[in-house]
Amino acid sequence: MIYSFTIKRRSTVWLVRQRVISKSEPELGIGVIENIVISKRLIQVNFPMSSETRSYNLSSCPIERFYFRVGQDVCFGDFGGKIEKVDFDKGFARYHIKTRVFWEYEAFFELPKGSNVTDLILKSTFSSTSAFNLRREAWKLKESISQSPILGFLRSRVKPIPHQLFIANEVCSRQSPRVLLADEVGLGKTIEAGLIFSSLEATGRAERVLLVVTDSLVNQWLAELHRRFGFTFSVFDEQMCEELERTSGLSPFESQQKIIVSMSMLIKSPKHLKQVLACSWDLTIIDEAHHLEWDEWDPSLEWQIVQSISKKTQALLLLTATPRQRGLGSQFGLLNLIDPKRFHSYEEFYEEYQEIKEIAFFAKQIVENNFSQKDLKKWESYFKHDPKIQALLKSIKSEGQSQALLNHLVDCHGTGRVYFKNRRVNQKGFPRRILNQICLEPSSKYKEHIDSLDPTTLNDFQLMDFATGRGAVKKRKTFEDLAHENPRYIWIDKFIKDLAGKKVFVICSTKDQVFKLKSFLEQKRRPANQKIAVFHEDLSTLERDKQAAFFAQDDGPSILISSEIGGEGRNFQFVRNIILFDIPLTPEALEQRVGRLDRIGAGKEVHIFVPWLKNTPEEVLFTWFHEGYNAFEKSWSEAGSLLEDFAEEILFCIKSYFGKMPKNESSKVNLKNLVKKTKTKALKLKKDIEDSTDVLLDLNSFNSTKAQTLVDAIDEFDDDPTLEFFVRSAFDFLGVNYDDYDDRGSILIHEDVERHLDSIPGMSFFNESQIVTFDRETALKREDMVYLTAGHNLVEAIFSLFTERDLGSVSFCRVETNRLASGFYVCFSYVLQAQGPKKLELERFLPVNNETFTVSSKGVKLSKEEEKFLFSIDCQDIEDENISLSKEILVEQIEKKSLLIEKFRETWSQKLKDQALLKATDDFNVEVDRLTALSLINKNVLEEEINCLVQLKKQVMTCLEKTREKLDAIRIFIVD
Description:
The chain is an alpha/beta fold. It contains 34 helices and 34 strands. It starts with 5 loop residues before the first strand and ends with a strand.
């Protein structure tokens, strides 16, 4: 049977085993339809050249039929030749070559080793010189971008921060990274994970991605991945999963590629957990990993779930600021998920940890240059089996030897290869946090209410509501009553007026509080220029983008009021004032609030205003945060354990502030004792943490020299206007209607872009006027703008338009000059591009390369200087109808000229291939040798990792050896 399923879409009949190409991903090569599931409206296509498979919705699949044309040279297995005839029967193409006939499904046919003159001239309509030039510019830009060491990071809308780039680069240097990211709060673990994902996706190693997060962080991750990295994820809850199953009949986790799911859903729904485990994943990210409690005999259900998922994923990222939240066992439990073979026994891990502590102490002595001859003797004995350390110790006083010794220790000892942790103390650029406590007198009504309550009848949540300032009294209908009940309203109204237009970020616990406060402030007589922006969870991502952009403008609102959930993932580094309208419930919530402004590079100071009511339960929580461990002015990621330790005592103190609580001791005395105990515990905990600081881990997690190289590379790319000029030129050529928007190069694209949608696939999302910027700083401030940079879908679509289609492939023009002999000149534009699975990252070794060879009327190859001059002359395009020669005669003449540059072309391509093969050989050999040597010392280097590199090398070398140059375009000159 020739085919099994068919379905008609518009004028196209799709059949299993038909050959197709992807309009959205032409780089995948020729695809084969493997399956069509009519009931589920799905079509599955395999792309053998790139070893990729895609599933498309039949109603919107971005594929089109692929046919060879008469006259093309093709290969069918070992047999090849020129196609003499093409006909069709039952939806399939049939090719006649010499004495044989082939159906398209009989053997997988290959593209010719290089497109020829016949293909280009006969299948193309002559394009303008502008189109030809844009085509060449597109290839040159692709060549430049493909050689960039920060290729996977360019599309990200993030400020290039050294430690984040360093970690992302280190992690992505491994084929299938599995690591624990444990940077302290505020250092950007979410950004690091996003950068890693973006880079892995760009290199074909993260097509299927699963994010498992807590309920409260689902929206934050969804927003961050979309706004900062340009990726749209699907959020799966039980309702969504049931709907997808009902409509498609498939497992919902097979119907989408990139998914966010909450841990609570996986716990509550064994059915959906089973569906997750039935899939294979390229990358899984687990946030808030400290909730994965491990015990040798009774690990938590969350830990067991992630353990099961970890067996089904290639790459794994665990994110937490507190990997030792419950002691060393917590860290072991996380490392066991990362690598169960290496970290299989807690007892062994504990023994190794004691050894690592010794080595870390040694490293600390070196860093601080605080060691004696006696210490050196001790370490010579300790490392007697490591000859390199022995040699370095003997010359440690020589210049550079201390650093060399540290580098060797980092490479060969500890858990650094799977564990990264940066500390705030080692990073520069954080602002100073200044607390402004606003102690307010409670209203008589509120005090009466507090005194009337018996706290023993209230549960813990109700007690904490009063301690945070959220305790409800009774509903008031007027703003006067609201202000009378809660003096915060009167204070904030006066405070904002006194700010005289300075920006202030106000954060409340709930969206209802946001609405109340906004209405109250609008009702009061404020200066006309003090507009108000709001953030809450009911706003869409686009609406929040607009509110954020509105707030960021110099002439925009001076006030933004946000709910706790609505503001997740949004940072406002340009603001210097933050008001905590109510007191945060936990240390983590406090840090997340202040962290909206307390970011690297945010400025010199952040002023934190905290209004609270004295002689009420609010005094307990505020005082415990402030005096207990200085929470408002100093960031500390370990504070969560303090809340666990003192939760009962905090609640007892809160109860003592209610009127009906038996007065065994005064509330002030209780609070004073609580603060004293908290201080003592916090100091001890900080000292223990400081004493256990692993210098090797610090060094492994950040190398300032390497990091700065990455930052410089991004800055250099951002400063280069070539991409902006190219996009503007492409818009001009295509007739896209736009105007300059500001002095930073931003442009306003108008609504009439619909007529260009067929030309530029990436413009399909421009359904209304859109502001576009090419400037990273502007993009960071204006999240409502589209940030066009390398890797953006629209930029890639424009590249595809000029490099994957016929546009600009043949142009015919006339020029006048006395410097060159009159006659018929032909410029041949060739491209050398390695073909293979995306995950092989072939462009690391053989970047895309474009070269031109021009032949004169006398059959002589022009020098580069002559060619440059010819290209610089003003020319007049010659249209198809004005060409006197038939295309067949034109082909004959041009083919003769192409033979004259064959030697030059082959020399050019072979030189690049030889360089690529040499680089690949050297790079892989160096890394394999390094890991092999390390595996003898460091158990974190696995044999599987080495074997993977060896196999990867074989695949890369095979693809590079098969690479052939392709004739991409022809430009014909009539020189008068």
